[in-house]
Amino acid sequence: MTKSSDITEQSLGKELSINTNIQTNQQMDMFSVIDVPAKQRPDYSNTVEIYDAIPKYVWGKTREHEDLKSASLTRHCTIKGNKLTVKLRPALIDKGDRTVLIYPGQREELVEDALRKIAVNGKGVHINDKAGVSFSLYELLKELERMGHTYSFDEVKEALFVCRGAIIECYSEDGESVINSSLFGLLGLTTKKDVANNTGAKCYVQFNPLVNESIMNLTFRQYNYQIGMDIKSPLARFFYKRMAQYWTQASDKHPYQPNLVAFLEQSPRGLTKKMGENLRAMRSALSSLQKHKVILDYEEVKVLQGKQKVMDAKYTIYPHPNFVKEVIKANQRKSSLKIRSKLEADDFNGQPL
After folding, report:
1. What is the C-alpha to C-alpha distance for residues 333 and 223, in angstroms, rounded to an integer?
2. Using CA atoms, how far apart are residues 122 and 134, in angstroms rounded to an integer?
3. Residue 265: which domain range?
4. CB neighbours (10 Å) of residue 81?
5. Per-residue pLDDT tens digits for 244-286
6. Domain of life here (predicted)?
7. Which of 61, 87, 219, 316 is the most exposed place for a label (fewest CB within 10 A)?
8. Helix H segments across the chain?
9. pLDDT tens-digit series, residues 227-249
10. In whole angstroms, what is the distance from residue 102 CA to residue 167 CA?
């Protein structure tokens, strides 16, 4: 059980040796955006294949409760044609004299995104073949504040513990387990005394195994982090990341064509019984993406049962020219990373024994 009121990690200094003994590798270097022009560097980060598409967050007030009967949620999603069943279990967090169950929500998503941004800015590390990030709590707080998301020290601290304690299980269609892991594989925090005396005191987060796998296999993609953090609607942000990762041929000739029911069922929002609510949620998300110049326009065609009952809706979404430019940049970077990886592998294989 995690006590969110007590930040201590006795092994942090010896085991991690943040300042001196952290290992880096070629993939972590490629995951960074330090090769992006300096003026553009603050705007960019990476989306991660599979992990970012899994509906692992819970939005709304229901994410925090004390009912053990509600300590597991089951969702379903399809990623690149592969059907997955996702089970989400909340973190157990002590709050004073009571213990509450907290699912990761919008706050935890923003904290994760900020940590990943810190990693791509050159703070990504590789310890025991696991990808992670070295940071200070002050640095994390300031990054969130820079993006317009202001949280207190205790709120960010709790978010980190929620990510460490919450568990996601993914099963393939044949029932075999794909992954069973907490959102953060390891969390190392400095003590309150260290934080009080030194705003640069180092902390460490080990990313989820799916993030590590994506980094090692170069299946991540560059996206505009600034836009993602500016989007207030969590559904629109989920939509944006999914498009950034998978809509690799965005153009008027290659529109994005999701169905309402399938898309919402696979999102953290889920599908509600009232179709009117689902339609409004989708339209609101798309309007937000129009506002942020991600999409230019969209068409909605309702699927009816009889003359009036709406069963589903089909969307045809056209990209904004700004988004198309971002996709082209991401495609070019993807190609250059593949070439670089091959050249480095050839150089390594050509070394004398």
Report:
1. 11
2. 9
3. 231-345
4. 5
5. 999 999 999 999 999 999 999 999 999 999 999 999 999 999 9
6. Bacteria
7. 61
8. 26-31, 106-118, 137-146, 153-165, 192-197, 209-217, 225-230, 234-246, 260-265, 275-291, 321-349
9. 999 999 999 999 999 999 999 99
10. 11
